[in-house]
């Protein structure tokens, strides 16, 4: 199995177009890590600002909800416009918008303008990732999609974690503590976004990343809006026919709902319980948590392609959900910092493993003309569920994050999700006679 996995990876990395697309993803997500480290430091770990459960949930809602509500409409754009152009333009806009954000951080002015600008940067980043996912089948053949999603998603997550880590290291060694240091970190982001835009522009032809058949252009604002609405209806109808993808997306949304509860508890525990009065040390303490998360992503990427091919994607998702349900009470209830690192590791293995299966199922089942919309709908559900979990948990969780009841509810929720998904997804896989457990065919990897 190890030899086969290595063969898949070598065959994938032998495709020049995939390597270029991967480089674009890595540059963007590394820069996202740097930028969001500056945001987190200035908002969450600043001793001059209060971080209650409601405040954290509100900040998450403000940053995530605006794009999540318009995400499906952005997906139509991915099926209308050149995805190379979308990637270039979004990176250029992000590079420009980060500049006033850095100035606002430096001035300590984190009001409505700060949140609106941040929403733009983060929202465009999500649009960009949806576009890269929709473009992947244009650079690798179908039988390599599982491995491509594992490599792309994993490398991107690791790059994001490295960006966070590098920002924390710079804060400890180069930049001063406080708003000036966080502003300096934020000013590094435009360099990365510009580099990603240039790389995309000169690495791909205009239509190389799709879509294969662009939707017809409707003149005028009303015509464009009507086309967007009709396109979304078509996308939902298409997802109704691709039931395996719909069920997998539903399972991932359920996972993210409960993950929002766990994320809020983790932030509060490290900020308000484990740190005491020393907030300056919180980012360093979270370094171990980030390392565990990155290790979980790597482990998921290493095992998911082989396991999904052997047992089927839906069975692997069921196993991952069940594993989280078991680990949460065993390692989480003591509320010990070191044991919680184990929880983070397992939850990240599950989250990334499920994401690989979901992305591959959408690419496998959905026609290219609809992929952008389906990925955007998935991204919306992914983020709305996360925020909803945070908001609901904020009503019940104490300020220090220690709530055995909520942790138990999350564990039971993951268990119920595993059982429910096993029933409906297994029934559909048997009826359709299809899953992503594909045998590697003899079709060679296409060089582009």
TrEMBL record:
UniProt subcellular location: Cell membrane
Keyword set, alphabetical order: Cell membrane, Membrane, Transmembrane, Transmembrane helix
InterPro entries according to UniProt: MFS, MFS_trans_sf
Domain of life: Bacteria
Pfam families: MFS_1
SUPFAM superfamilies in the cross-refs: MFS general substrate transporter
Keyword set includes Transport: no
GO cellular component, one term: plasma membrane
A GO term for molecular function: transmembrane transporter activity
Topology of the protein relative to the lipid bilayer: Multi-pass membrane protein
Membrane-crossing residue ranges in chain numbering: 55-78, 85-107, 113-134, 146-174, 180-199, 246-270, 282-302, 314-332, 338-358, 370-393, 405-424
Main location: membrane
Protein name: MFS transporter
Species annotation: Micromonospora endolithica
């Amino acid at each position: 199995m190890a030899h086969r996995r290595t063969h898949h990876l070598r065959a994938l990395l032998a495709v020049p177009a995939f390597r270029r697309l991967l480089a674009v993803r890595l540059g963007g997500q590394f820069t996202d890590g740097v930028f969001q480290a500056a945001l987190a430091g200035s908002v969450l770990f600043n001793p001059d600002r209060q971080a209650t459960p409601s405040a954290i949930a509100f900040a998450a809602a403000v940053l995530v909800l605006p794009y999540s509500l318009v995400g499906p409409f952005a997906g139509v754009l991915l099926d209308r416009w050149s995805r190379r152009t979308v990637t270039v333009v979004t990176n250029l806009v992000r590079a420009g918008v980060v500049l006033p954000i850095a100035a606002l951080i430096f001035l300590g002015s984190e009001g409505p303008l700060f949140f609106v600008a941040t929403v733009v940067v983060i929202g465009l980043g999500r649009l960009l990732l949806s576009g890269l996912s929709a473009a992947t089948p244009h650079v690798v053949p179908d039988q390599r999609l599982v491995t491509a999603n594992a490599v792309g998603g994993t490398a991107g997550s690791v790059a994001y974690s490295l960006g966070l880590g590098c920002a924390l290291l710079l804060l400890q060694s180069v930049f001063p503590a406080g708003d000036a240091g966080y502003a300096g970190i934020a000013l590094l982001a435009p360099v990365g976004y510009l580099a990603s835009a240039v790389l995309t522009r000169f690495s791909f032809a205009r239509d190389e990343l799709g879509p294969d058949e662009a939707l017809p252009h409707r003149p005028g604002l009303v015509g464009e809006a009507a086309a967007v609405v009709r396109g979304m209806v078509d996308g939902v109808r298409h997802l109704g026919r691709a039931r395996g993808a719909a069920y997998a997306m539903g399972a991932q949304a359920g996972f993210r709902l409960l993950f929002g509860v766990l994320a809020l508890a983790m932030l509060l525990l490290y900020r308000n319980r484990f740190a005491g009065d020393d907030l300056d040390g919180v980012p360093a303490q979270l370094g171990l948590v980030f390392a565990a998360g990155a290790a979980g992503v790597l482990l998921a990427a290493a095992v998911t392609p082989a396991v999904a091919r052997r047992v089927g994607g839906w069975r692997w998702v069921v196993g991952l959900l069940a594993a989280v349900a078991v680990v949460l009470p065993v390692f989480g209830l003591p509320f010990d910092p070191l044991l919680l690192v184990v929880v983070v590791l397992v939850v990240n293995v599950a989250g990334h493993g499920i994401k690989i299966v979901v992305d591959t199922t959408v690419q496998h089942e959905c026609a290219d003309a609809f992929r952008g919309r389906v990925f955007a709908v998935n991204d919306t559900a992914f983020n709305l569920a996360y925020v909803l979990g945070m908001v609901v948990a904020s009503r019940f969780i104490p300020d220090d994050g220690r709530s055995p009841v909520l942790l138990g509810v999350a564990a039971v929720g993951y268990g119920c999700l595993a059982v429910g998904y096993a029933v409906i997804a297994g029934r559909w896989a048997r009826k359709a006679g299809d899953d992503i457990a594909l045998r590697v065919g003899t079709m060679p990897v296409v060089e582009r």
